[in-house]
Amino acid sequence: MSGTTETHTRAARLVGHGEPLSVETSPLPEPGPGEVVVELAFSTVNPVDRYQALGKVAPDAKIPRTLGGEASGTVGGRRVLVRGHGLGIGRDGLWADTAVVPEAALIDVPEGVGLCAAAAIGVAGVTAWRCVTEIARVRATDRVLVLGASGGVGAMIVSLARSRGAQVAGQTTDPAKADSIRAAGAAEVIVGDAAALGGPATLFSPTVVFDALGGDYFGASVGAAAPEARIVTFGTSAGESGVVPLQALYRKGISVRGYAGLLAGEEELAVAARRALAALAEGKLRVPVGEVFPLEQVNMALSSLAARRTAGKILLDLGR
User: Fold this and answer.
1) Do 64 and 166 reside in the same domain of the chain?
2) Of 57, 101, 209, 258, which is the most buried if we count CB atoms within 10 A?
3) Which residues of the chain are modeled with pLDDT < 50?
4) Beta bridge partners of 71
5) Cβ count within 10 A of residue 108
6) What is the reported pLDDT for 1?
7) What is residue 2's predicted lDDT score, i.e. its pLDDT?
8) Alpha-carbon distance 133 to 131, whole Å?
């Protein structure tokens, strides 16, 4: 007998595609070379996690496995964001109270930033930061229209664009979410579907459009956009295809860029995460938290995400 005490972890396990996740307690493996044990605090529930659970993303990855690709926590008192490096897909993820992760997956959380907000930076925060600062390069002279502005990424884009001095309008189909969009920094809220964009959005005449929705919204945004506008598309929650008014696109000289996060390398994404965390510490980025569920209610969290009933990010409290 060695006298060592075996460490256990409580984790949300994918046991079959389309089946409810199972919260189980199991032995925590010993960390190997270049790995550390993280005591996890919060993790986000992202659309990609739900797609993995359904088998629409990484259908050939091992089962059973722990889901979750980003979280916050501590390592020996060091406050960290954990992200990337195959977590949740190629290896067990972060929907757990404790996890063994590559040390390279750790990013320090700045003073003044809570672990709850930090947990949302690895995916949504990085997407928002890169879309606003690297792809659209929003300036103070811009008029920015954010489609799906009550979503986790959309609300962060609203706050970042506003912090750069731009005039910001946010779109939602749910009047109950208008106040949260204004709280993120939007001076104007457009309530309505793609068909409703023709009036108020055209009057706003955006020089930059961020589109998380796709479907009919993309074509409507082309019609509403100002000459030489930049459109950044990063999601298709309203549809993967739609009709584009090509004549308006080329006559206005509109530029279209897609956010290709999957093409970026780990170091590039880590740099963006550090910059987004710094913006959060400086008050230039706001993380809207809609709902927080204990780990045992992970299936309720996934259902809430699917129903789109909450504004902002959905998180798991891994310590409850």
Assistant:
1) no
2) 209
3) 1-3
4) 43, 82
5) 13
6) 36
7) 42
8) 6
CA 248 to chain CA centroid, Å, is 31
Beta strands of 228-272 (E only): which ranges? 230-233, 255-258
Helices marked H in 45-187: 47-54, 115-118, 126-129, 152-163, 178-184
Q: Is position 127 within any domain?
A: yes
Domain-embedded: residue 272: no
Q: Using alpha carbons only, what angle is made at residue 181 by residues 162 and 117, rounded to the nearest 5 degrees? A: 80
Do 188 and 131 reside in the same domain of the chain?
yes
Would you put residue 215 in left (φ > 0), alpha (ψ -120 to 50) or beta? left
b/e string for 210-241 if b means 16 or more Cβ within 10 A?
A: bbbbbbbbbbbbbbbbbeebbbbbbbbebeee
Tell me whether residue 275 is in a domain: no
Q: Mind listing the pLDDT tens digit for each residue in 172-194? A: 999 999 999 999 999 999 999 99
Is 77 in contact with 63 (CB distance < 8 Å)?
A: no
* C-alpha span between 42 and 315 (Å, rounded): 7
The answer to whether 229 touches 206, Cβ cutoff 8 Å, is: yes
Residue corresponding to tokens 């939602």? 172
pLDDT of residue 216: 96
The confidence score (pLDDT) of residue 6 equals 65
Domain shared by 190 and 257, yes or no? yes
pLDDT score at 226: 98
Q: Partners of 294 in the beta sheet?
A: 317
Measured CA to CA in angstroms, residue 3 lies from 6, 26, 31, 37 at distances of 10, 19, 18, 20
What is the chain's Cα-based Rg?
A: 20
* CA 141/CA 137 separation, integer angstroms: 11
Structural domain span for residue 234: 123-261
Give the domain CATH number at 139.
Answer: 3.40.50.720
Domain at 54, CATH number: 3.90.180.10
* Count of domains for the chain: 2
Omega of the bond leading into 102 within 30 degrees of 0 (cis): no
Token pair, residue 37, equals 């044990």
Burial (Cβ within 10 Å: 0-12, 13-18, ≥19) of residue 200: middle
**Count of beta carbons in the 10 Å neighbourhood of residue 51:** 13
The β-bridge partners of 144 are: 168, 208
